[in-house]
Protein backbone atom coordinates (compact mmCIF):
# COMPACT_ATOMS: atom_id res chain seq x y z
CA UNK A 1 0.00 0.00 0.00
CA UNK A 2 1.32 3.48 -0.90
CA UNK A 3 2.00 5.07 2.48
CA UNK A 4 0.90 8.43 1.11
CA UNK A 5 -2.48 7.00 0.08
CA UNK A 6 -3.14 4.43 2.80
CA UNK A 7 -6.40 6.03 3.88
CA UNK A 8 -8.13 5.86 0.51
CA UNK A 9 -9.28 2.23 0.92
CA UNK A 10 -8.43 1.60 4.56
CA UNK A 11 -10.70 -0.36 6.90
CA UNK A 12 -10.77 1.35 10.30
CA UNK A 13 -12.19 -0.20 13.48
CA UNK A 14 -13.91 2.16 15.90
CA UNK A 15 -12.87 1.50 19.50
CA UNK A 16 -15.33 2.88 22.03
CA UNK A 17 -12.70 2.87 24.75
CA UNK A 18 -14.87 2.62 27.85
CA UNK A 19 -16.61 -0.51 26.43
CA UNK A 20 -13.74 -2.32 24.73
CA UNK A 21 -11.65 -3.98 27.47
CA UNK A 22 -11.02 -3.06 31.12
CA UNK A 23 -7.51 -3.66 32.49
CA UNK A 24 -7.98 -2.23 36.00
CA UNK A 25 -11.11 -3.94 37.30
CA UNK A 26 -13.18 -0.79 37.70
CA UNK A 27 -15.70 -1.84 35.05
CA UNK A 28 -14.64 0.84 32.57
CA UNK A 29 -12.51 0.10 29.51
CA UNK A 30 -9.18 1.90 29.24
CA UNK A 31 -6.13 2.47 27.05
CA UNK A 32 -4.28 -0.49 28.51
CA UNK A 33 -7.28 -2.61 27.55
CA UNK A 34 -7.08 -1.28 24.00
CA UNK A 35 -3.38 -2.14 23.91
CA UNK A 36 -4.15 -5.68 25.10
CA UNK A 37 -6.73 -6.02 22.32
CA UNK A 38 -4.45 -4.95 19.48
CA UNK A 39 -3.43 -8.53 18.55
CA UNK A 40 -7.13 -9.40 18.24
CA UNK A 41 -7.62 -6.48 15.85
CA UNK A 42 -4.50 -7.40 13.90
CA UNK A 43 -5.87 -10.92 13.49
CA UNK A 44 -9.21 -9.51 12.31
CA UNK A 45 -7.31 -7.66 9.60
CA UNK A 46 -8.19 -3.98 10.04
CA UNK A 47 -5.80 -1.26 8.91
CA UNK A 48 -6.31 1.07 11.83
CA UNK A 49 -8.36 2.10 14.85
CA UNK A 50 -10.31 5.20 15.79
CA UNK A 51 -10.33 5.84 19.54
CA UNK A 52 -13.31 7.55 21.16
CA UNK A 53 -12.38 10.51 23.42
CA UNK A 54 -10.21 9.60 26.41
CA UNK A 55 -9.31 13.15 27.46
CA UNK A 56 -9.98 14.56 30.96
CA UNK A 57 -13.72 15.07 31.19
CA UNK A 58 -16.60 15.12 33.69
CA UNK A 59 -18.08 12.40 31.43
CA UNK A 60 -21.44 14.10 31.10
CA UNK A 61 -21.44 12.88 27.48
CA UNK A 62 -18.88 10.10 27.87
CA UNK A 63 -15.88 12.20 26.95
CA UNK A 64 -17.41 14.35 24.24
CA UNK A 65 -17.37 17.08 26.90
CA UNK A 66 -13.62 17.74 26.98
CA UNK A 67 -12.02 19.60 29.89
CA UNK A 68 -8.42 19.27 28.64
CA UNK A 69 -7.58 18.37 25.04
CA UNK A 70 -3.92 17.51 25.72
CA UNK A 71 -4.04 14.83 28.42
CA UNK A 72 -5.60 11.48 29.36
CA UNK A 73 -8.40 11.11 31.90
CA UNK A 74 -7.25 8.94 34.84
CA UNK A 75 -10.27 6.72 34.09
CA UNK A 76 -8.44 5.57 30.97
CA UNK A 77 -4.77 5.77 31.97
CA UNK A 78 -2.18 8.45 31.37
CA UNK A 79 0.06 9.80 28.63
CA UNK A 80 2.63 7.11 29.34
CA UNK A 81 0.04 4.41 28.65
CA UNK A 82 -1.00 6.23 25.50
CA UNK A 83 2.61 6.22 24.30
CA UNK A 84 2.84 2.47 24.93
CA UNK A 85 -0.34 1.98 22.91
CA UNK A 86 1.16 3.97 20.05
CA UNK A 87 4.36 1.91 20.18
CA UNK A 88 2.49 -1.40 20.04
CA UNK A 89 0.17 -0.21 17.29
CA UNK A 90 3.10 0.94 15.20
CA UNK A 91 4.84 -2.42 15.69
CA UNK A 92 1.71 -4.23 14.48
CA UNK A 93 1.20 -1.91 11.54
CA UNK A 94 -2.07 -0.50 12.89
CA UNK A 95 -2.87 3.18 12.29
CA UNK A 96 -4.27 5.21 15.20
CA UNK A 97 -6.86 7.99 14.80
CA UNK A 98 -8.00 10.17 17.69
CA UNK A 99 -11.46 11.66 18.14
CA UNK A 100 -11.20 15.46 18.32
CA UNK A 101 -14.14 17.60 19.48
CA UNK A 102 -13.76 21.19 18.20
CA UNK A 103 -17.39 22.36 18.20
CA UNK A 104 -17.76 22.44 21.97
CA UNK A 105 -15.88 21.75 25.19
CA UNK A 106 -16.86 20.87 28.75
CA UNK A 107 -18.39 23.41 31.10
CA UNK A 108 -15.47 22.38 33.35
CA UNK A 109 -12.90 23.53 30.78
CA UNK A 110 -10.71 26.34 32.26
CA UNK A 111 -11.84 28.69 29.49
CA UNK A 112 -15.50 28.33 30.40
CA UNK A 113 -14.85 28.64 34.13
CA UNK A 114 -13.01 31.88 33.37
CA UNK A 115 -15.92 33.07 31.24
CA UNK A 116 -18.38 32.49 34.07
CA UNK A 117 -16.15 34.35 36.50
CA UNK A 118 -15.88 37.52 34.42
CA UNK A 119 -18.39 40.21 33.57
CA UNK A 120 -20.36 40.35 30.31
CA UNK A 121 -18.32 41.62 27.40
CA UNK A 122 -15.04 40.17 28.67
CA UNK A 123 -12.42 38.43 26.53
CA UNK A 124 -13.10 35.01 28.06
CA UNK A 125 -16.79 35.16 27.13
CA UNK A 126 -15.84 36.00 23.55
CA UNK A 127 -14.46 32.46 23.17
CA UNK A 128 -18.05 31.20 23.46
CA UNK A 129 -21.48 32.40 22.35
CA UNK A 130 -22.72 34.58 25.19
CA UNK A 131 -25.67 36.89 24.52
CA UNK A 132 -28.26 38.93 26.37
CA UNK A 133 -31.71 37.46 26.64
CA UNK A 134 -34.91 38.76 25.10
CA UNK A 135 -38.07 40.01 26.76
CA UNK A 136 -38.50 41.73 30.11
CA UNK A 137 -35.32 41.44 32.15
CA UNK A 138 -33.72 39.29 29.45
CA UNK A 139 -35.64 36.30 30.76
CA UNK A 140 -36.10 34.64 27.35
CA UNK A 141 -33.32 32.93 25.33
CA UNK A 142 -31.58 35.03 22.66
CA UNK A 143 -33.20 32.98 19.88
CA UNK A 144 -35.47 29.98 19.35
CA UNK A 145 -32.83 27.32 18.60
CA UNK A 146 -33.20 23.83 20.06
CA UNK A 147 -30.39 21.50 21.12
CA UNK A 148 -29.63 18.21 19.38
CA UNK A 149 -30.11 16.34 22.66
CA UNK A 150 -33.40 18.02 23.57
CA UNK A 151 -34.52 21.28 25.12
CA UNK A 152 -33.48 24.86 24.36
CA UNK A 153 -29.99 25.47 22.99
CA UNK A 154 -29.40 28.24 25.56
CA UNK A 155 -28.80 28.32 29.31
CA UNK A 156 -28.75 31.39 31.53
CA UNK A 157 -25.89 32.09 33.92
CA UNK A 158 -25.87 33.74 37.30
CA UNK A 159 -23.51 36.70 37.32
CA UNK A 160 -20.93 37.45 39.99
CA UNK A 161 -23.34 39.69 41.88
CA UNK A 162 -25.90 36.88 42.09
CA UNK A 163 -28.31 38.31 39.52
CA UNK A 164 -29.61 36.44 36.46
CA UNK A 165 -27.30 37.27 33.60
CA UNK A 166 -26.45 36.40 30.02
CA UNK A 167 -27.21 33.21 28.15
CA UNK A 168 -24.72 30.86 26.47
CA UNK A 169 -25.21 28.58 23.47
CA UNK A 170 -24.94 24.79 23.63
CA UNK A 171 -26.14 22.79 20.64
CA UNK A 172 -25.96 19.53 22.63
CA UNK A 173 -26.18 19.90 26.44
CA UNK A 174 -25.61 22.74 28.95
CA UNK A 175 -22.44 20.89 30.02
CA UNK A 176 -21.08 21.33 26.45
CA UNK A 177 -20.87 25.05 25.63
CA UNK A 178 -20.24 25.76 21.94
CA UNK A 179 -16.96 27.45 21.12
CA UNK A 180 -16.98 30.63 19.04
CA UNK A 181 -14.79 29.93 16.03
CA UNK A 182 -15.03 33.56 14.94
CA UNK A 183 -12.62 34.27 17.80
CA UNK A 184 -9.04 33.60 16.54
CA UNK A 185 -8.01 32.30 19.98
CA UNK A 186 -10.13 29.21 19.40
CA UNK A 187 -8.42 28.28 16.15
CA UNK A 188 -4.99 28.93 17.66
CA UNK A 189 -5.80 26.64 20.58
CA UNK A 190 -6.75 23.77 18.29
CA UNK A 191 -3.58 24.27 16.27
CA UNK A 192 -1.75 23.51 19.49
CA UNK A 193 -3.98 20.48 20.18
CA UNK A 194 -3.39 19.00 16.72
CA UNK A 195 0.37 19.41 16.98
CA UNK A 196 0.45 17.98 20.50
CA UNK A 197 -0.98 14.65 19.32
CA UNK A 198 0.72 14.63 15.92
CA UNK A 199 4.03 15.00 17.73
CA UNK A 200 3.11 11.86 19.71
CA UNK A 201 2.78 9.94 16.45
CA UNK A 202 -0.94 9.70 15.74
CA UNK A 203 -2.01 9.02 12.16
CA UNK A 204 -4.90 11.43 12.09
CA UNK A 205 -8.18 12.55 13.57
CA UNK A 206 -11.87 11.78 13.37
CA UNK A 207 -13.46 15.24 13.62
CA UNK A 208 -16.64 15.43 15.68
CA UNK A 209 -19.47 17.67 14.40
CA UNK A 210 -17.38 18.76 11.41
CA UNK A 211 -20.27 20.68 9.82
CA UNK A 212 -20.67 22.74 12.99
CA UNK A 213 -18.14 25.18 14.50
CA UNK A 214 -19.45 28.35 12.82
CA UNK A 215 -22.89 29.75 13.57
CA UNK A 216 -24.64 32.55 11.71
CA UNK A 217 -22.97 35.73 13.02
CA UNK A 218 -26.29 37.36 13.95
CA UNK A 219 -27.70 34.29 15.76
CA UNK A 220 -31.20 34.92 14.30
CA UNK A 221 -34.30 32.84 14.92
CA UNK A 222 -34.54 29.61 12.94
CA UNK A 223 -37.50 29.12 10.59
CA UNK A 224 -37.62 25.52 11.87
CA UNK A 225 -36.40 25.57 15.47
CA UNK A 226 -37.21 21.90 16.11
CA UNK A 227 -35.17 20.65 13.13
CA UNK A 228 -32.22 19.63 15.28
CA UNK A 229 -34.48 17.57 17.53
CA UNK A 230 -35.60 15.32 14.66
CA UNK A 231 -33.04 13.82 12.29
CA UNK A 232 -29.67 14.65 10.80
CA UNK A 233 -31.40 15.25 7.46
CA UNK A 234 -33.33 18.15 8.97
CA UNK A 235 -30.89 20.51 10.68
CA UNK A 236 -30.88 24.16 11.62
CA UNK A 237 -29.12 25.86 8.66
CA UNK A 238 -28.17 28.80 10.88
CA UNK A 239 -26.21 26.60 13.28
CA UNK A 240 -24.65 24.06 10.90
CA UNK A 241 -22.91 23.99 7.53
CA UNK A 242 -21.91 27.66 7.49
CA UNK A 243 -19.48 28.51 4.65
CA UNK A 244 -16.70 29.70 6.97
CA UNK A 245 -16.16 26.19 8.31
CA UNK A 246 -14.35 25.18 5.14
CA UNK A 247 -11.50 27.53 6.00
CA UNK A 248 -10.87 25.50 9.15
CA UNK A 249 -10.54 22.28 7.20
CA UNK A 250 -8.21 23.86 4.65
CA UNK A 251 -5.97 25.01 7.48
CA UNK A 252 -6.07 21.67 9.32
CA UNK A 253 -5.26 19.91 6.05
CA UNK A 254 -2.18 22.13 5.69
CA UNK A 255 -1.06 21.20 9.21
CA UNK A 256 -1.40 17.49 8.42
CA UNK A 257 0.47 17.91 5.15
CA UNK A 258 3.28 19.67 6.99
CA UNK A 259 3.78 16.49 9.05
CA UNK A 260 3.51 14.33 5.94
CA UNK A 261 6.32 16.26 4.29
CA UNK A 262 8.35 16.00 7.47
CA UNK A 263 8.34 12.19 7.77
CA UNK A 264 6.56 10.73 4.73
CA UNK A 265 3.52 9.43 6.67
CA UNK A 266 0.25 10.93 5.49
CA UNK A 267 -2.05 12.02 8.31
CA UNK A 268 -5.81 11.62 7.87
CA UNK A 269 -8.72 13.93 8.66
CA UNK A 270 -12.09 12.15 8.51
CA UNK A 271 -15.12 14.23 9.38
CA UNK A 272 -18.48 13.56 10.95
CA UNK A 273 -20.42 15.58 8.40
CA UNK A 274 -24.18 15.56 8.82
CA UNK A 275 -25.65 17.33 5.80
CA UNK A 276 -28.77 16.53 3.77
CA UNK A 277 -27.21 15.42 0.50
CA UNK A 278 -24.17 13.76 -1.05
CA UNK A 279 -23.58 16.92 -3.07
CA UNK A 280 -23.22 19.04 0.10
CA UNK A 281 -21.14 16.27 1.66
CA UNK A 282 -18.73 16.49 -1.29
CA UNK A 283 -17.89 20.11 -0.42
CA UNK A 284 -16.08 18.89 2.70
CA UNK A 285 -13.75 16.48 0.89
CA UNK A 286 -12.38 18.72 -1.81
CA UNK A 287 -8.67 18.24 -2.51
CA UNK A 288 -7.52 20.79 0.11
CA UNK A 289 -10.06 20.09 2.89
CA UNK A 290 -10.90 16.93 4.83
CA UNK A 291 -9.45 13.76 3.30
CA UNK A 292 -12.72 11.93 3.95
CA UNK A 293 -16.10 12.29 5.63
CA UNK A 294 -18.42 9.55 6.83
CA UNK A 295 -21.17 8.80 4.32
CA UNK A 296 -24.14 8.10 6.57
CA UNK A 297 -26.67 7.59 3.77
CA UNK A 298 -25.76 3.91 3.45
CA UNK A 299 -26.37 3.47 7.18
CA UNK A 300 -29.76 5.13 6.99
CA UNK A 301 -30.95 3.53 3.74
CA UNK A 302 -33.95 1.24 4.04
CA UNK A 303 -33.35 -2.45 3.32
CA UNK A 304 -34.20 -2.20 -0.35
CA UNK A 305 -32.12 -2.78 -3.46
CA UNK A 306 -33.28 0.43 -5.13
CA UNK A 307 -32.53 2.52 -2.03
CA UNK A 308 -29.03 1.07 -1.70
CA UNK A 309 -28.28 1.54 -5.38
CA UNK A 310 -29.44 5.17 -5.23
CA UNK A 311 -27.25 6.19 -2.29
CA UNK A 312 -24.23 4.29 -3.61
CA UNK A 313 -24.58 5.88 -7.05
CA UNK A 314 -24.93 9.38 -5.59
CA UNK A 315 -21.85 8.87 -3.43
CA UNK A 316 -19.79 7.59 -6.34
CA UNK A 317 -20.86 10.53 -8.51
CA UNK A 318 -20.67 13.41 -6.03
CA UNK A 319 -18.06 12.37 -3.47
CA UNK A 320 -15.65 10.22 -5.45
CA UNK A 321 -15.90 12.88 -8.13
CA UNK A 322 -13.96 15.28 -5.90
CA UNK A 323 -10.88 13.06 -5.99
CA UNK A 324 -11.55 11.70 -2.50
CA UNK A 325 -12.94 8.24 -1.84
CA UNK A 326 -16.25 7.43 -0.17
CA UNK A 327 -16.08 6.54 3.51
CA UNK A 328 -18.74 3.86 4.09
CA UNK A 329 -20.28 3.12 7.50
CA UNK A 330 -23.04 0.82 8.70
CA UNK A 331 -22.87 1.64 12.39
CA UNK A 332 -21.17 3.69 15.10
CA UNK A 333 -21.50 4.58 18.78
CA UNK A 334 -24.57 6.76 18.10
CA UNK A 335 -26.67 4.25 16.14
CA UNK A 336 -28.83 1.20 16.81
CA UNK A 337 -26.71 -1.87 16.10
CA UNK A 338 -27.05 -3.22 12.60
CA UNK A 339 -28.47 -6.64 13.50
CA UNK A 340 -31.31 -5.03 15.44
CA UNK A 341 -31.88 -2.19 12.98
CA UNK A 342 -32.22 -4.56 10.04
CA UNK A 343 -34.41 -6.83 12.13
CA UNK A 344 -36.77 -3.87 12.43
CA UNK A 345 -36.00 -3.48 16.14
CA UNK A 346 -37.19 -6.98 16.91
CA UNK A 347 -35.86 -9.42 19.46
CA UNK A 348 -32.14 -9.66 20.01
CA UNK A 349 -30.25 -11.52 17.33
CA UNK A 350 -33.32 -12.08 15.13
CA UNK A 351 -32.54 -14.33 12.20
CA UNK A 352 -33.73 -11.75 9.67
CA UNK A 353 -31.62 -8.95 11.17
CA UNK A 354 -28.53 -11.14 11.37
CA UNK A 355 -28.88 -12.31 7.76
CA UNK A 356 -29.29 -8.76 6.51
CA UNK A 357 -26.40 -7.46 8.63
CA UNK A 358 -24.08 -10.16 7.25
CA UNK A 359 -25.10 -9.31 3.68
CA UNK A 360 -24.68 -5.57 4.29
CA UNK A 361 -21.19 -6.13 5.71
CA UNK A 362 -20.08 -8.02 2.62
CA UNK A 363 -21.63 -5.35 0.41
CA UNK A 364 -19.82 -2.54 2.26
CA UNK A 365 -16.45 -4.30 2.07
CA UNK A 366 -16.88 -4.70 -1.70
CA UNK A 367 -17.52 -1.00 -2.34
CA UNK A 368 -14.79 1.34 -3.60
CA UNK A 369 -13.22 3.50 -0.90
CA UNK A 370 -12.76 3.22 2.85
CA UNK A 371 -14.90 1.42 5.44
CA UNK A 372 -15.38 1.88 9.18
CA UNK A 373 -16.46 -0.94 11.48
CA UNK A 374 -17.91 -0.23 14.92
CA UNK A 375 -16.67 -2.53 17.66
CA UNK A 376 -18.91 -5.55 18.19
CA UNK A 377 -20.31 -5.51 14.66
CA UNK A 378 -17.77 -8.20 13.79
CA UNK A 379 -19.43 -10.32 16.49
CA UNK A 380 -22.97 -9.72 15.27
CA UNK A 381 -23.88 -8.09 18.57
CA UNK A 382 -27.51 -6.94 18.78
CA UNK A 383 -28.68 -3.76 20.43
CA UNK A 384 -29.47 -4.14 24.13
CA UNK A 385 -33.02 -2.80 24.07
CA UNK A 386 -34.11 -3.53 27.64
CA UNK A 387 -31.60 -1.68 29.82
CA UNK A 388 -33.34 -0.50 33.02
CA UNK A 389 -34.03 3.22 33.26
CA UNK A 390 -31.81 3.54 36.32
CA UNK A 391 -28.66 2.49 34.45
CA UNK A 392 -29.11 4.73 31.40
CA UNK A 393 -26.36 7.32 31.13
CA UNK A 394 -27.03 8.94 27.76
CA UNK A 395 -27.65 12.69 28.16
CA UNK A 396 -30.43 12.40 25.58
CA UNK A 397 -32.44 10.42 28.13
CA UNK A 398 -31.53 12.89 30.86
CA UNK A 399 -32.65 15.83 28.70
CA UNK A 400 -35.82 14.38 27.16
CA UNK A 401 -36.99 11.61 29.48
CA UNK A 402 -37.54 9.51 26.35
CA UNK A 403 -35.76 6.29 25.37
CA UNK A 404 -36.48 6.85 21.66
CA UNK A 405 -32.99 8.05 20.67
CA UNK A 406 -30.97 6.75 23.62
CA UNK A 407 -27.59 5.34 22.59
CA UNK A 408 -26.63 3.21 25.60
CA UNK A 409 -27.88 0.03 23.95
CA UNK A 410 -25.06 -0.01 21.39
CA UNK A 411 -22.42 0.88 23.98
CA UNK A 412 -22.74 -2.12 26.32
CA UNK A 413 -19.23 -3.53 27.00
CA UNK A 414 -17.99 -6.26 24.68
CA UNK A 415 -18.17 -9.94 25.69
CA UNK A 416 -14.77 -11.61 25.35
CA UNK A 417 -15.13 -15.02 27.02
CA UNK A 418 -17.07 -17.11 29.48
CA UNK A 419 -20.73 -17.81 30.11
CA UNK A 420 -21.72 -14.97 32.46
CA UNK A 421 -21.11 -11.28 32.88
CA UNK A 422 -18.58 -9.65 32.82
CA UNK A 423 -17.62 -12.08 29.99
CA UNK A 424 -13.92 -11.35 30.34
CA UNK A 425 -14.43 -7.62 29.82
CA UNK A 426 -12.99 -6.70 33.20
CA UNK A 427 -10.08 -8.21 35.10
CA UNK A 428 -11.68 -7.47 38.44
CA UNK A 429 -13.19 -9.90 40.92
CA UNK A 430 -16.34 -11.86 40.23
CA UNK A 431 -18.30 -8.99 41.78
CA UNK A 432 -16.85 -6.46 39.32
CA UNK A 433 -19.58 -4.97 37.18
CA UNK A 434 -19.23 -3.40 33.75
CA UNK A 435 -20.36 0.23 33.63
CA UNK A 436 -23.44 -0.92 31.68
CA UNK A 437 -24.95 -4.34 32.43
CA UNK A 438 -24.40 -7.10 29.87
CA UNK A 439 -27.38 -9.38 29.15
CA UNK A 440 -27.01 -13.11 29.67
CA UNK A 441 -27.41 -13.79 25.93
CA UNK A 442 -24.09 -12.02 25.27
CA UNK A 443 -22.53 -15.41 26.01
CA UNK A 444 -23.59 -16.49 22.51
CA UNK A 445 -21.57 -13.64 20.99
CA UNK A 446 -18.38 -13.82 23.05
CA UNK A 447 -15.17 -13.39 21.10
CA UNK A 448 -13.77 -16.79 22.05
CA UNK A 449 -16.86 -18.51 20.61
CA UNK A 450 -16.80 -16.36 17.50
CA UNK A 451 -13.20 -17.24 16.73
CA UNK A 452 -13.91 -20.96 17.19
CA UNK A 453 -16.98 -20.99 14.91
CA UNK A 454 -16.05 -20.63 11.23
CA UNK A 455 -19.67 -19.71 10.43
CA UNK A 456 -19.63 -16.67 12.75
CA UNK A 457 -19.82 -12.99 11.90
CA UNK A 458 -16.17 -12.70 12.94
CA UNK A 459 -15.00 -15.12 10.27
CA UNK A 460 -17.15 -13.41 7.63
CA UNK A 461 -15.48 -10.09 8.45
CA UNK A 462 -12.00 -11.61 8.73
CA UNK A 463 -12.32 -13.52 5.43
CA UNK A 464 -13.73 -10.46 3.68
CA UNK A 465 -10.89 -8.28 4.97
CA UNK A 466 -8.29 -10.82 3.88
CA UNK A 467 -9.74 -11.01 0.37
CA UNK A 468 -10.06 -7.25 0.20
CA UNK A 469 -6.41 -6.79 1.17
CA UNK A 470 -5.19 -9.38 -1.31
CA UNK A 471 -7.31 -8.71 -4.39
CA UNK A 472 -6.56 -5.72 -6.65
CA UNK A 473 -10.22 -5.62 -7.72
CA UNK A 474 -11.31 -4.47 -4.26
CA UNK A 475 -10.59 -1.31 -2.31
CA UNK A 476 -10.23 1.83 -4.40
CA UNK A 477 -11.32 1.73 -8.02
CA UNK A 478 -14.37 1.83 -10.31
CA UNK A 479 -17.74 0.16 -9.88
CA UNK A 480 -19.99 -1.02 -12.72
CA UNK A 481 -23.62 -1.91 -12.12
CA UNK A 482 -25.12 -5.10 -13.54
CA UNK A 483 -28.61 -5.72 -14.86
CA UNK A 484 -30.22 -7.86 -12.16
CA UNK A 485 -33.69 -9.15 -11.26
CA UNK A 486 -35.92 -6.92 -9.12
CA UNK A 487 -34.77 -6.89 -5.51
CA UNK A 488 -31.20 -7.86 -6.39
CA UNK A 489 -28.20 -5.56 -6.45
CA UNK A 490 -25.13 -6.55 -8.45
CA UNK A 491 -21.94 -4.82 -9.52
CA UNK A 492 -18.52 -5.64 -10.93
CA UNK A 493 -15.27 -4.57 -9.32
CA UNK A 494 -12.19 -4.54 -11.49
CA UNK A 495 -11.63 -7.57 -13.70
CA UNK A 496 -14.47 -10.00 -13.11
CA UNK A 497 -15.15 -9.74 -9.37
CA UNK A 498 -18.90 -9.62 -8.85
CA UNK A 499 -20.70 -8.64 -5.66
CA UNK A 500 -24.41 -9.48 -5.59
CA UNK A 501 -27.00 -8.99 -2.86
CA UNK A 502 -30.48 -10.48 -2.86
CA UNK A 503 -32.54 -8.20 -0.60
CA UNK A 504 -35.13 -10.91 -0.23
CA UNK A 505 -37.75 -9.43 -2.55
CA UNK A 506 -36.76 -11.26 -5.73
CA UNK A 507 -39.42 -13.90 -6.56
CA UNK A 508 -36.69 -16.37 -7.53
CA UNK A 509 -33.10 -16.87 -6.41
CA UNK A 510 -30.62 -14.76 -8.35
CA UNK A 511 -28.38 -16.88 -10.60
CA UNK A 512 -24.71 -15.93 -10.79
CA UNK A 513 -22.25 -17.78 -12.96
CA UNK A 514 -18.70 -18.13 -11.75
CA UNK A 515 -16.53 -19.24 -8.85
CA UNK A 516 -17.92 -18.25 -5.43
CA UNK A 517 -15.30 -16.67 -3.15
CA UNK A 518 -17.28 -15.68 -0.09
CA UNK A 519 -20.93 -15.65 0.91
CA UNK A 520 -22.72 -14.08 3.85
CA UNK A 521 -24.91 -17.17 4.26
CA UNK A 522 -25.68 -20.61 2.84
CA UNK A 523 -25.19 -20.26 -0.88
CA UNK A 524 -25.39 -23.02 -3.48
CA UNK A 525 -23.11 -22.65 -6.51
CA UNK A 526 -24.59 -20.01 -8.79
CA UNK A 527 -27.62 -19.33 -6.56
CA UNK A 528 -28.09 -16.40 -4.16
CA UNK A 529 -30.90 -16.89 -1.62
CA UNK A 530 -32.78 -13.93 -0.13
CA UNK A 531 -31.04 -11.59 2.36
CA UNK A 532 -27.67 -12.92 1.26
CA UNK A 533 -24.62 -11.39 -0.38
CA UNK A 534 -21.74 -13.12 -2.13
CA UNK A 535 -18.59 -12.40 -4.09
CA UNK A 536 -17.76 -14.29 -7.29
CA UNK A 537 -14.94 -14.33 -9.80
CA UNK A 538 -16.57 -14.56 -13.21
CA UNK A 539 -16.03 -13.79 -16.87
CA UNK A 540 -19.77 -13.22 -17.14
CA UNK A 541 -20.59 -9.52 -17.22
CA UNK A 542 -24.38 -9.85 -17.22
CA UNK A 543 -25.42 -12.63 -14.82
TrEMBL record:
SUPFAM superfamilies with a match to the protein in the record: (Trans)glycosidases
InterPro entries, per database record: GH, GH13_cat_dom, O16G_dom_2
SMART domains in the cross-refs: Aamy
GO MF, one example: alpha-amylase activity
Database matches in Gene3D superfamilies: Glycosidases, Oligo-1,6-glucosidase, Domain 2
Any single GO BP term: oligosaccharide catabolic process
Transmembrane segments: none
Domain Glycosyl hydrolase family 13 catalytic: 14-407
Family per record: Belongs to the glycosyl hydrolase 13 family.
Protein name listed in UniProt: Alpha-glucosidase
